[in-house]
Design a protein that fits this description.
Blueprint: H1 2-13, E1 40-44, H2 81-88, E2 95-96, E3 108-110, H3 128-140, H4 146-150, E4 153-157, H5 160-169, H6 175-195, E5 200-204, H7 213-216, H8 226-250, E6 255-258, H9 260-277, E7 289-291, E8 304-306, H10 311-320, H11 322-342, E9 349-353, H12 390-397, E10 404-405, E11 417-419, H13 437-449, H14 455-459, E12 462-466, H15 469-478, H16 486-506, E13 511-515, H17 524-527, H18 537-561, E14 566-569, H19 571-588, E15 600-602, E16 620-622, H20 639-648, H21 650-657
Parallel strand pairs: 1-3, 1-4, 2-3, 4-5, 5-6, 9-11, 9-12, 10-11, 12-13, 13-14
Antiparallel strand pairs: 7-8, 15-16
Helix pairs in contact: 1-9, 6-8, 16-18, 19-20
Length: about 650
């Protein structure tokens, strides 16, 4: 039965592979031409892995009983989609990377690994980035020529394990942002594979996860879980848009999609119709190989058995897994929240502060020079990071695009708000020339006077306010490091911030997110003195004191107004929490990057991230994997770092929209 459904799915997918007509290949289906130049390179998870997960159930009975007759590394009784596509290309299935040697790589390599995903999962295996790293190393070893690569095909399929892992870790709590980050990373991966020389890339869309037996058990396997299938549909919609964009950029159809979603549903529907006509046929939503106890898997020696039609057993399994019910309810509430957020379509975001929230106002700065923006949007775009910053994530949470930087107000759309934040500035004037927060609010007031936004626009909008780091940097530099009168300075900062917050509210904004001060003693610029070993606590005490005083002022303002206008975003504890988590993981795996160390830094103290010499040569170095870093450079966070902080702020951000849903 498993073989039958795979065949049906392959039939549905073959029309998508028409582009792969093999010139010179033998015409007999299944007859392989070892001299063909065409090769297949595979990246992804267990749906396409043919043997890399060596110490797994895929190498235990009853896997492989249909083909090749014995366990051989496939999570199936027989062939999987990789085998069918290789057969369609008239080649043998490519060798698993784990089993490679000098004589068995003529048909390509399969880098896919069961249990892995686009990002890291709970399985200790190579995520897709690492799989592509392995591919790049083989190319560097000159195992394949440029012609080999140009005439070859890549198969890419992953995502399911990412969503499963997100449920376990809590990242699913912000489904829209998580989904966007997944698709964005997939887009980076696809572009990288193409840049390594592959001109044809087949990309699997996400299967309908609500139909998988591990989850549809909650319905006694009578039907798919529609809410979970909505996740797959939304993911696929975003992935299709990303692929279309990549093809437009390439100027040709490099990437084609394999619609696993509709292929699965069509195959299931076909089999259900046949079963309706013949009740002796097996329910296609029921697995062929099942287990007696929850937590076991097909291939667990003492618990393995083959399911017939035992409704009582399925019912008892449902009772064993309240966690499944919990996860489904969690998805339900997440999706309800997303649907509610969609109604925020008219909300606008107005941003005030420094480089932590600036998305493009400091035009003549390193934020517009490489390597800024290498993760997102792929080129320097005015953010002090390799990718997104806090503003982008909050905009995504509000279901809008990031607001236009003020400097581009005359050339861009303003329907999502305006970002007045300016890198290097503060609550007061700093050592950097630029508009302090008072001036930024002046600009906002002028925009309102120009009637660009209505009173209703403002009342339904949100303001993001974050600054003070540069104020303390300026204070300490002017005082030559002395902390004398620091308490007086903090009091003056808090007083001015209170004035600023009142003023923003007075201009019509009824929801204002206020960032507490990050732990400045953890900045790489500071921790470099200890070889990035630990944060400098005296400076963190400054952040703590400021944050406590600001929190008190916000509470007083809300009490005075009689409603929760102001919501604090605890950057201080969010930073420390994410750093602690990353440090704990590094203690378990020393190969991981030290989170206190910046990803990008100058080759010596006279240079910085983005420096070039008079010949235009780079004078900075990058970490091997920016996606695993916390800090981008001396004081700014990486795309990954900001995402981690953002997930910690999720509950606070909900307070911004709870009155609107």
């Amino acid at each position: 039965m498993a073989k039958h459904i795979l065949c049906i799915i392959s039939i549905f997918l073959l029309p998508f592979m028409v582009f792969t007509e093999v010139k010179g290949a033998k015409k007999s289906y299944g007859i392989y031409d070892s001299n063909t130049a065409r090769k297949l390179f595979v990246f992804g998870d267990s749906y396409v892995d043919t043997g890399n997960f060596v110490h797994s159930e895929s190498y235990k009975p009853p896997n492989g009983m249909t083909f090749p007759g014995t366990p051989a590394g496939r999570f199936c009784d027989g062939r999987i989609i990789t085998d069918d596509i290789a057969s369609f290309l008239k080649i043998e299935s490519p060798t698993p990377y784990a089993l490679r040697n000098s004589s068995n790589m003529q048909y390509g390599i399969n880098f896919a690994h069961g249990g892995t995903g686009i990002f890291n999962t709970s399985i200790n295996g190579p995520n897709m980035t690492v799989q592509i790293d392995s591919f790049e190393k083989l190319i560097q070893q000159n195992i394949y020529t440029k012609i080999d690569l140009q005439s070859s095909i890549a198969l890419v399929n992953a995502g399911g394990n990412d969503y499963t892992n997100a449920l376990k870790t809590g990242r699913i709590l912000d489904l829209p942002a998580f989904m966007e980050s997944l698709v964005e990373q997939m887009s980076v991966n696809l572009n990288r594979i193409h840049n390594l020389g592959i001109n044809k890339v087949a990309v699997g869309l996400l299967q309908p996860i609500g139909c998988l037996p591990a989850l549809n058990v909650i319905s006694l396997r009578t039907n798919c879980i529609g809410l979970l299938n909505l996740v797959s549909k939304d993911h696929n919609k975003k992935l299709l848009q990303a692929i279309q964009k990549l093809n437009n950029q390439a100027g040709k159809s490099v990437f084609i999609t394999l619609d696993l979603y509709n292929s699965f549903l069509s195959a299931i529907e076909t089999m259900q119709k046949k079963r309706a006509a013949n009740s002796t046929l097996m329910n296609p939503l029921q697995p062929c190989c099942d287990v007696k106890n929850l937590g076991d898997s097909c291939g667990t020696s003492e618990n393995l058995y083959f399911v017939m039609s035992v409704s009582a057993k399925i019912s008892s399994m449902v009772k064993q897994i309240p966690s499944v019910t919990t996860l489904l309810l969690l998805f339900f509430f997440i999706l309800r929240e997303v649907e509610g957020a969609e109604r925020l379509g008219e909300v606008k975001l107005f941003v005030f502060g420094d480089s932590y929230v600036d998305t493009g106002n400091l035009v003549n700065s390193i934020s517009y020079k490489p390597p800024s923006g290498i993760t997102f949007p792929g080129t320097p775009a005015g953010r002090f990071s390799d990718g997104r910053v806090l503003t982008d994530y909050i905009a995504s949470f509000l279901k809008i695009k990031s607001p236009t930087p003020y400097v581009f107000r005359n050339s861009s759309e303003l329907q999502y708000g305006i970002n007045f934040a300016h890198g290097g500035t503060g609550i007061f004037n700093t050592l950097n020339e630029g508009p302090n927060m008072t001036v930024q609010i002046d600009w906002f007031e002028r925009v309102i006077q120009q009637k660009i936004y209505t009173k209703t626009d403002l009342e339904s909008s949100v303001a993001l306010v974050s600054a003070a780091g540069n104020d303390y940097a300026t204070f300490l530099q002017r005082k030559q490091g002395s902390m004398r009168d620091i308490h007086v300075f903090t009091a003056s900062l808090i007083q001015q911030m209170s004035i600023n917050l009142r003023r923003i509210h007075g201009l019509g904004i009824n929801k204002i997110a206020v960032g507490l001060l990050e732990p400045i003693g953890c900045m790489p610029l500071i921790t470099a003195a200890s070889s990035y070993d630990k944060c400098l606590q005296p400076l963190n005490f400054i952040s703590q004191n400021y944050s406590q005083m600001l929190l008190q002022i916000v509470q007083e303002l809300n009490k005075e107004l009689g409603k929760p206008v102001f919501v604090t975003l605890d950057l201080y504890n969010s930073f420390l929490s994410v750093l602690a988590t990353m440090q704990k993981r590094r203690s378990e795996d020393p190969t991981l990057m030290n989170p206190l160390k910046p990803c990008c830094e100058g080759v010596s103290t006279e240079y910085y991230c983005g420096s070039v010499d008079e010949k235009g040569e780079k004078k900075y170095g990058l970490c091997e994997k920016p996606e695993f870093s916390f800090f981008w450079e001396g004081v700014h966070l990486s795309h990954n770092g900001w995402y981690g902080v953002y997930t910690m702020l999720y509950s606070s951000l909900r307070n911004l929209i709870q009155t609107k849903l």
